[in-house]
Write a structure and sequence with these properties.
The protein is built from 14 helices and four strands. It has 244 residues and is mainly alpha-helical. The chain folds into two domains: 12-102, Orthogonal Bundle (Arc Repressor Mutant, subunit A), CATH 1.10.10.10; 114-243, Arc Repressor Mutant, subunit A (Orthogonal Bundle). 23% of the residues are buried.
């Protein structure tokens, strides 16, 4: 055989590269599953907010449901071994985030904007809403012992709380509840993940504590003036801070 013929025989064509590799059925299945894991990972990573299992199944409707769920479970196992990132379940969805112990290093890279930090008064008000929801502005004020109108407005503006209805009493004051953004921000799967009310009260230094407030009778008051102030804007938190 001539050198030219030998060279032609050794040439690898595009068709040959694209042809099946002769993998066994099990190996082919593993390869397919691995590819699906990568797709799920990319979707979780690219989603601007936690992506739910329902959303994954909807986008991957051409894949068997059991394969998508298996890929998700495999992704969980892989990230359990990751040293820098973790796959967490928050707000009924999945998100890839940095590990909490590395927060300080990440913070140095992305300097936190102080304007986005919540004041102690805002955190206290948010805790009352989280544990007592749905709750009115007057009920929040009774528990905290100060006017919280400005703080509630700030929480509404940040998307951490929402108006979830009106209480069926004289004046029909607004009822406030937490949002999905609240769950996402604080890394909670749902409201059952909230710490014990006593622990939260001690941490925030409530007077009276939230735990005691659980036993306090809440007056049925028509808080429409406070509701109007909330709707007009977040207002100034100085009044709250001065009395706290």
């Amino acid at each position: 055989m001539s050198d030219e013929q030998q060279g032609n025989d050794d040439t690898v064509t595009v068709d040959a590269l694209m042809a099946p590799t002769g993998l066994s059925d099990d190996a082919q299945q593993d390869s397919d599953a691995s590819g699906l894991v990568g797709i799920v990972e990319a979707m979780v990573f690219a989603s601007p907010e936690p992506i739910t299992q329902k959303q994954l199944l909807k986008v991957l409707d051409s894949e068997p449901k059991e394969d998508v769920l298996a890929a998700l479970e495999e992704l969980k196992r892989r990230y359990a071994r990751s040293v820098g990132l973790q796959l967490v379940e928050v707000a009924a969805g999945y998100q890839i985030v940095t590990r909490p112990e590395l927060h300080e290093w990440v913070r140095r890279l992305f300097r936190e904007r102080t304007s986005q930090k919540l004041t102690v008064q805002a955190l206290e008000t948010l805790a009352v809403i989280a544990y007592k929801q749905p709750v009115t502005a007057m009920e929040i004020a009774e528990i905290r012992g100060v006017n919280t109108t400005g703080v509630v407005g700030t929480l509404l503006e940040r998307g951490l709380v929402k108006i979830s209805g009106r209480k069926q009493v004289v004046g029909r004051p607004f009822l406030y509840s937490t949002t999905r953004e609240f769950l996402d921000r604080f890394g909670l799967k749902d409201l059952t993940d909230l710490p014990k009310v006593e622990d939260m009260a001690d941490a925030l230094g409530f007077e009276p504590s939230l735990a005691a407030a659980e036993q306090m009778p809440l007056a049925e008051q028509a808080a429409t003036p406070e509701d109007q102030e909330v709707l007009e804007g977040p207002g100034d938190e100085d009044e709250d801070e001065g009395q706290a």
